[in-house]
Write a structure and sequence with these properties.
The structure is a single chain. By secondary structure, the chain is of the alpha/beta class. It has 2 domains: about 170 residues, Malonyl-Coenzyme A Acyl Carrier Protein, domain 2 (3-Layer(aba) Sandwich); about 60 residues, Alpha-Beta Plaits (2-Layer Sandwich), CATH 3.30.70.250. It is built from 14 helices and 9 strands. The strands form 3 sheets. The chain has a 4-stranded antiparallel sheet with strand order 3-4-2-5. Helix 13 links the parallel strand 8 and strand 9. Helix 2 packs antiparallel against helix 5 and helix 5 packs parallel to helix 6. The two termini are about 30 Å apart.
Length: about 290
């Protein structure tokens, strides 16, 4: 994970070194060599995903930064967005998401499931019928919603969703019921971590997961990033709002994979998209920009 970037670009290596120093251990070594089961623990995975994205942005930002018009991120990615927008130093961001991961792992009851396809009843009604506090957690695309809650309640909701026409209902390999009321115990710790993180004014509007609205205010950011723990990720509304405001912008997914680009294409098929997480993609994007 990100080894090729570190080899290809000194700025990427410097970003990874900054994260290592901030955390006090060689996260980059874990990213490069594993073991995978240790890397995928949420308190390691969260700063690793941040570090990968930050390494890419460290290379891109001198050329592309002046042309950026807004930023957003899905769940953890919202913290990366604040770093990219200049509101959060990389060292502070790394420590903050490491703490977020620790807190979320401590609140590791429950599970999540993806509901694919349209249903004859709204997802919210299905969750209410299932009982047990299950809720919609991620509105990822018009035909994909993730639900979250106690295991038995999530399984009941999955069965109801399939009865109501869902194509598939898939349990996700996660360690807890993220973006649900089961994360309430994590909120005070994250609030304290955000207070200590030195969050500043963003240089770009950041579209929040909790309401899909833009802001540059650090006070608003602190409130919404805490609410994000227990609130659904409103990705569909976020992308629609961005596409309405910036219809001619390039929607650039920075970091690992292409999941968000896939969702964006389903939500706003007319916008231009690109992924940037490998040296080849970085070089192609910089060549296009110049």
């Amino acid at each position: 994970m990100a080894r090729d970037l570190a080899v290809a670009f000194p700025a990427a290596q410097a970003a990874l070194t900054t994260v290592d120093a901030a955390l006090g251990f060689k996260l980059s070594q874990l990213m490069f060599d594993g073991p995978a089961d240790e890397l995928t623990m949420t308190d390691n995975a969260q700063p690793a995903l941040l570090a990968h994205s930050a390494a890419v942005w460290a290379v891109l930002s001198p050329e592309l930064g002046p042309h950026a018009v807004a930023a957003a991120g899905h769940s953890l990615g919202e913290f990366t967005a604040y770093h990219a927008a200049g509101a959060l130093s990389l060292a502070h961001a790394a420590r903050l998401v490491r703490r977020r991961g620790e807190l979320m792992r401590q609140s590791s009851s429950g599970t999540m499931a993806a509901i694919l396809g349209t249903t004859s009843s709204p997802i919210e009604a299905i969750c209410a019928e299932a009982g047990g506090g299950v809720v919609a957690a991620n509105y990822n695309a018009p035909d994909q919603t993730v639900i979250s809650g106690e295991v038995a309640a999530v399984e009941r909701a999955m069965a109801i969703a399939k009865e109501r026409g869902a194509k598939r209902a898939i349990r996700l390999p996660v360690s807890g019921a993220f973006h649900s009321p089961l994360m309430v115990p994590s909120a005070p710790g994250l609030e304290a971590a955000l207070e200590a993180a030195g969050l500043g004014e963003a240089q770009l509007p950041i579209y929040s997961n909790v309401d899909a609205q833009p802001s540059t205010s650090p006070d608003v950011a602190r409130l919404k990033l805490v609410r994000q723990l227990t609130s659904p990720v409103r990705w569909v509304d976020t992308v629609r709002n961005l596409a309405t405001k910036y219809p001619d912008a390039l929607f650039l997914e920075i970091g690992t994979g292409a999941v968000l680009v896939g969702l964006v294409k389903r939500i706003a098929p007319n916008v231009e998209t690109a992924t940037c997480g490998t040296p080849a993609e970085v070089e192609a994007l910089l060549a296009k920009a110049t």
